[in-house]
Specification:
Layout (H helix, E strand, L loop, with lengths): L1 H23 L6 H8 L3 H7 L3 H25 L6 H17 L1 H11 L8 H21 L8 H21 L10 H15 L3
Helix pairs in contact: 1-2, 1-6, 2-3, 4-7, 5-6, 5-8, 5-9, 6-8, 7-8
Length: about 200
């Protein structure tokens, strides 16, 4: 029974961490704020994590691992084109942003913070996946000869997440997320990756 309570506390801690960071930013967030929002003591939190950075690192690692696993699965379906892989991946990012708004905003903040870098194992997996996408895309003629792995990584991960965040933030007051976003982003990425300049 005690184990279940601990797991529930851990879920609350992770949710409180994401919400606190979304509300106050990474730098202003403290362990005390997270503990208060999770309804646990600061001491309990320190028993699980050495500090705020360790807690955030775990959340970041979990999210990136989930994204890599998703992309691995899509590639494993043996598509002969990258279009359906990219389209499904984008669709999933939009669904995630709608259904897990807090977590999506949290990941956006981490993605744009220089304190969070991928561990070596995740970098290697990510590079391997980008190489597979490059291979599929060049064989199908969807990716130009001069496109680099960094280009693929940026456009599939960062560009898509930035676009979704920009629309969600409603900077201009006219943004609405629609099904057309998937088509727009997929076509944009495919057009960019096809260019040989």
């Amino acid at each position: 029974m005690a184990r279940k309570i601990d797991e529930e506390k851990l879920v609350r801690i992770k949710q409180a961490t994401m919400k606190t960071i979304v509300d106050f930013g990474i730098e202003r967030t403290t362990i005390a704020m997270i503990a208060k929002n999770a309804n646990v003591s600061g001491g309990y939190l320190y028993r699980l994590y050495s500090g705020k950075q360790a807690l955030i690192n775990e959340l970041y690692y979990d999210k990136v691992t989930a994204l890599i696993s998703e992309l691995e699965f899509l590639i494993s379906l043996k598509h002969t084109s990258i279009a359906p892989i990219i389209k499904t991946f984008i669709q999933n990012r939009i669904v995630y942003a709608i259904n897990e708004s807090e977590a999506s905003k949290f990941f956006y903040q981490l993605l744009h913070n220089d304190n969070f870098i991928l561990p070596k194992t995740l970098k290697e997996k990510s590079i391997s996946l980008m190489k597979q996408l490059l291979d599929i895309g060049q064989k199908s003629g969807e990716i130009g000869e001069n496109v680099e792995l960094l280009d693929i990584n940026y456009h599939i991960f960062t560009y898509v997440i930035d676009y979704i965040h920009f629309k969600r933030a409603n900077f201009l007051g006219i943004e609405k997320t629609t099904n057309n976003d998937v088509i727009y982003l997929t076509n944009n990425i495919l057009n960019i990756l096809k260019k040989d300049c």
